[in-house]
Structure formats: structure tokens, C-alpha cells
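User
New here, help please:
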Amino acid sequence: MMKKLLEVAAEWEEEEERKRLAGLERLQDELEDNEMIAAEVQRIERENFTEEQKAKFLVETIAAQRRFRAEQQAALRRSKPPTISQLRNQMMKYIRNVGGKAYRNLKNKSYEEIKDIYEEVKRLNDKFVAIGSTEDEQAIKEMNVKAEEPSKKRKGTIRKMKSSRIIKRRKIPKSDDELKNFLKVVDFEGDGAQDVEVMEQRSSISSFSIIQSPEGEYIAIQRANGHIRAFNTLNEVLHILDRQDLHNLHRLVIEYYEHIPPIGLGLILHGDLTTMMETTEESDVELWRNQTEWEIIRWRLYESTGVHILELENGTMIHMLAEQGYPLTRELMQRMLEHKLEVQRETEDALNLIRFVMKKKEDLEREEE
């Protein structure tokens, strides 16, 4: 009897194992079918994309990658404790914004001196009482009570209190030595003697094209003398171009994409040139909004073209002509000046750009009053 029960139990276990295996096979078949269906749907969707949709998808993908990298870098920086230099800069910013102190009076002070000034400004700010508040009414009552008491001072003596402060407008520096404080001389990467030689022997740009190669996509410009230069971004060739080259390149790019939508690197180049050449101070497009959120990495001038570039933490690069006005806010221009303009050497063009930005900033301050 026991032997028969064991045989039945063994048969039951074998049957359950067969059912389990059969279920796994059906599940695997369903997963493979779903994968094939999903792949077919994606293929059909890709085929139905227009060139404009493909270009838009590429731009959104590049922007998403840049945002992701920027978020990773920002998270990494936030996880690190601030350095002495960072603490000093944060305290200086608080002193300027809250205490009304000028930057030129703070930049040469040590960390300990800045810390003492910061603590004093913060103490005064914490003691501030808004007019009409409960604390203000209580203080007035106490002052009235004291005023009714016999004064111990000599008759006729009047004690005057003055709490208002006058904030003077910052004057634009007149001398070159003052303006040079806003310059930072650096070596630009990729600017070698070979590029200088090419620059001296160049002729006008005659054509523009997009090159597809096994290594990827490239932008190519050809000069009338046959010389060809391939690059990925406009920044890579600004040091071997001049202003006339920029106008010629802008015209060629506009003509190239007159009847076809720009995609890939061509879309980026088209956007950079259009922003630089066609933007005015009255422009109100998405690019110029939310300037308070812009984190500046560097502000750099390419003297041969008269182009200055604002490179932001999220990967965006704003190309601007030195003598042209753009819809920059007063706060952003102040941060640009504090960050300093990177140049290869101190020249009159660099000093003129500093004067130009300061003048625009002062005009906006006057309009806000």
C-alpha cells in the first residue's frame, strides 16, 4: 500500500513539473511575440517620421543628455563641502546684495575680514523690523513712554537719528587699469601656431557642407584657395575666422537650408549663427528667458571675429557680437563682469567690450529707478 502511494505522489510531482515547464514555454513565446510587435511598431513609427520630426527628436535628445550631465555634475558638487574660496564668494555676494557694499571694497580682503563683515551685515539684517509690524508698533510705544519722561539732557539738546542710507550708482571705470580688473588672460585650447599661419594666408569662404564619415558627422567649410576645415562646433574655428568669414558662413548656411530643414550638427550651427546675427535687444524667445537660473562657466572673447561666448553649466553656449545689443538682464551682466572676460591678451577690443557691457547694465539700472 505504501509503495503505491509513493508511486502516485511521484507521478503527481512529474505532472506538476510538466505543467510548470509548459507554462514557462508559453510565457517565453509571449515575450518574444511582444518584442517582435514592439520592434515592428517602432520601425513603422520611424518610417512615418518627417524630417522635421527627426530633427526635433535629435535636438530634444541632445538637450536631455546635456541636462542629465549637468544634473549629475551639480549633484556631485552639492555633495562636496564648500571650500574656503566658495564660502568667501558666497559671503561676498550676501554682503553686496544685502549690505550694499561695493565689490571693489571687498575683493582684496582676507577670508577672516570678509567673515567679520558678513556677520555684522547679517546681525543688522536680522534686527530689521518692518514698518507697521507688531514689533514696530511696540517700539514706537516704548519711545513715546521714554519721551514723556523728564529728560536728563541739557534743555534744547535734540537727538537726531537717521536710519536711511544712500546707495550711489556705480560709475563706469574710466581708466584702462580699472577695466583690466575685469579681464582674465588665458591660453585658448586648440589655438596653435598652425592656425595662426592658416589665418594669415586664408581667402574667403566659398562653400559649406555636412560630411558623413565612419567617425561621425562633421561640418566642413572650404575657402577659395581650396583649403578645407572640418569641425563639430562653431567654437572650434572662431580663432581662425574674421568678421567677414562669419557673414559669409551665415549666408551660406541660410542658403543651404532654405528648402530643407536643418538636422544634426547643421541644426546647431544654424541656431548659433541665427542667434548671433539676428537677435536684438527686443527679442523675446525661449533662449533668453530664465536668465536668473543660468550658471556661468566661462565668458570668452575671440578677438579676430569680435565674438564673445557665454558658456553655461547646462551645456548651452550663447554666441554674441561684441558691438551688438542682446536681451541680457542687469543681474546677468553683473555676474558676467564678476566672472571676468577670458582673453588671450589685453587689447583695446576687450576693454571696449567691458565698457559696452557696463554701459548697458547702467542703462537698465536707470530705467528701473
Observations:
- The first helix runs from residue 2 to 48.
- The chain is about 55% helix and 10% strand.
- The CA atoms of residues 71 and 179 lie 35 Å apart.
